[in-house]
Design a protein that fits this description.
The chain has 171 residues and is α+β, with helices and mostly antiparallel strands. Helices cover 24% and strands 26% of the residues. The protein is built from 4 helices and 6 strands, in the order βαββαααβββ.
Amino acid sequence: MQMNARPGALAPPRRALRIETNVVPIHTPQHPQSVELIDFWERRSTGGRLLRRTDLPCREAVSLLPSIFILEPLGQDGEDWRLRVVGTLLTRWLDFDPTGMSIRELYHPDHVAHDAERYRAVTSERRLHITQGRLCGVNRDFLDLEIVHLPMEGASPEDILVLGCVSIFED
């Protein structure tokens, strides 16, 4: 397993995690953080262009940064995706930093194809996708979550990434 190790980053787990998504799509975000991210994305997606990777980080998005992640496709087929950025709240929640890992390394094999298809739809259709539910396999599967996936420009307008945010509902 290759990692883009950063000084002070939490080490990957000794055993392989196998995250399973137990989520359902929803049409309208319900978590305030999800609404904030979508509003930010809409304000920065102007003139026929999507939010650009260079727009992050910025003061306007500072409260969102700990809960965001960015996925990039590995190869033209989009069958696997690499976690390019993972926010500090998410790394603490996971107890390690998965930055640099692919979804094949991190997700349960039964969920990789479905989740990769979701990411391909977000990037090819350039539309948002929102789900609610739980992630199993991370020792925090009791938490109710909302996950937002948005298309975002990478190095060029043709290089489309997935900007995501995991919001945890408080009881």
